[in-house]
Write a structure and sequence with these properties.
Chain lengths: ~130, ~230
C-alpha cells in the first residue's frame, strides 16, 4: 500500500497535474486539427446543399466583352486594353442584356477544281504536255 | 509488500484513471457522432485527439521518471529534494507511465477513422498505420513493463541484473522519441518539436552529469582509501 500512501500528497498532485496537462493537450491537438497539419474545419449544417447562383456582377462583365467584340467587328479601333466608347444612340441598359451569340463562321471556300489535262497527254503536267514530243 | 496487495493497488489505480478518462470522454462527446452528418469534425476525431494527448502525457511521465531515476543515482537534487522522496516518486511514476501508455494505445481502438485492431496495438510491427513507428511504441510499452516490474524483482535478479535492466530505460526513452516523431501527427508543430528536443537534451544532460558524478565519487573513494589504510583503527 505504500506505493500510494507514502508521500500521498505528492502522488495525488502528480496525478492531478497529469490530468490537467492531458486536458490542456486535448484542447491543443483539437485546435491544430485531426491530422496536426491544418486547423479543424467545422462544416456548416447545410454544407450538403448546392452552392448559391453566381452574382449578377459576372453577367455585366460578360456583356462588356461581348460589346467590345461587336464594336471591333464593325471596324473600330482594336487597341489592347482600351474599351471602345459606347455609341451615343445606344442607351445604357437598365438590366443586363442577354449574351449575344456570335455569328456562325463563314463556310470554307470550295476547293479549286483540278486543272484539266489535254486528252492526248494523260498523266502528265500541262508543262510537260506543251513540250514537243 | 505482498504481490497480491500490489496487484490490487494497481488495478484500483488503473480503474480510477480509466473511470476519470471515460468520464472526460463522455462529458465532451456527442452520442450520435459517427453517423451524424451534422457532427463536428472535432467530435468525430475525439478518440484520435485523446490518443494524441495521452501520448504526450505518457511521454512527459516517462521523461519525469527517467529524470528522477538519474537524479537518484547522480544525487543532482541533493539539497533541494530528499532522496527518499525522489526515489519514491521515481518508482511511482514508472507505474503511472504504464497506465498512461495503455490509455494512449487503447483509446485509439474505438476511433472510426484509424480502425486499429487490438492485435495491431499489442503486437509490434503489425499496425497498418506507420507499422515501424507504432511497432517501436509497442516495444517501448513492453520494455517499460519489464523495467517497472524489476523494482519488485530485485531480490530475484540481483543488483547487477536490476542495473542492466535499468540501462534499458535509455533505449526505451529514445524509442519513445522515435515513436512520437514518426507516428505522431503533431510532429510538425513547434510545441511538439520543442517538447521532444527539450526532454531529449535534459536527459542527455542528466546522463552526462550522472557519468561525471560517478567518476568523482570513484576518485574520492580511491583518494580516501590510502588514508584510511594508515589511519589507526
Amino acid at each position: 500500500m505504500t506505493i500510494i500512501t507514502k508521500f500521498f500528497a505528492a502522488k495525488l498532485g502528480t496525478v492531478l497535474a497529469a490530468g490537467l496537462i492531458f486536458l490542456l493537450l486535448w484542447g491543443v491537438v483539437a485546435t491544430s486539427g485531426w491530422s496536426g497539419a491544418e486547423p479543424s474545419v467545422e462544416l456548416p449544417p447545410d454544407a450538403a446543399y448546392p452552392l448559391p447562383p453566381p452574382e449578377p456582377g459576372q453577367v455585366i462583365i460578360q456583356h462588356i466583352i461581348v460589346t467590345r467584340r461587336v464594336y471591333q467587328k464593325s471596324g473600330g479601333p482594336a487597341e489592347p486594353g482600351s474599351l471602345p466608347p459606347a455609341p451615343a444612340s445606344a442607351p445604357e441598359p437598365a438590366v443586363p442584356m442577354p449574351a449575344v451569340t456570335p455569328a456562325p463562321a463563314a463556310p470554307p471556300p470550295p476547293a479549286p477544281a483540278p486543272t484539266p489535262q489535254p486528252p492526248n497527254c494523260p498523266n502528265k503536267t500541262p508543262m510537260a504536255c506543251s513540250r514537243p514530243s | 509488500m505482498k504481490s497480491s496487495t500490489l496487484v490490487v493497488n494497481g488495478i484500483l489505480f488503473a480503474a480510477a484513471v480509466g473511470v476519470g478518462g471515460l468520464a472526460a470522454v463522455g462529458v465532451s462527446s456527442n452520442p450520435d457522432l459517427p453517423g451524424s452528418p451534422a457532427g463536428s469534425m472535432a467530435s468525430v476525431h475525439i478518440y484520435w485527439y485523446l490518443g494524441r494527448a495521452g501520448g504526450f502525457v505518457a511521454f512527459g511521465l516517462l521523461f519525469a521518471s527517467v529524470a528522477l531515476g538519474l537524479a537518484v543515482s547522480s544525487r543532482v537534487f541533493d539539497g533541494l529534494l530528499a532522496r527518499p522522496w525522489v526515489f519514491e516518486m521515481h518508482q511511482f511514476l514508472s507505474l503511472f507511465v504504464l497506465v498512461a501508455i495503455l490509455f494512449h494505445a487503447l483509446i485509439l481502438l474505438p476511433d472510426p477513422y484509424a480502425q486499429f485492431r487490438l492485435q495491431e496495438l499489442l503486437v509490434p510491427f503489425e499496425s497498418h498505420y506507420r507499422a515501424f513507428a507504432v511497432g517501436v511504441g509497442v516495444i517501448v510499452l513492453y520494455g517499460s513493463i519489464i523495467v517497472s516490474a524489476s523494482f519488485w524483482m530485485k531480490g530475484l535478479i540481483g543488483q547487477r541484473g536490476w542495473r542492466a535492466l535499468h540501462y534499458l530505460t535509455f533505449l526505451l526513452f529514445a524509442g519513445a522519441i522515435v515513436h512520437g516523431i514518426m507516428a505522431g501527427t503533431d510532429s510538425r508543430e513547434p510545441w511538439a518539436q520543442w517538447t521532444y528536443v527539450g526532454a531529449g537534451l535534459a536527459v542527455l544532460f542528466l546522463t552526462f552529469f550522472r557519468i561525471l558524478a560517478s567518476r568523482r565519487i570513484q576518485r574520492q573513494s580511491t583518494k580516501l582509501s590510502p588514508e584510511q589504510a594508515v589511519r589507526p583503527a
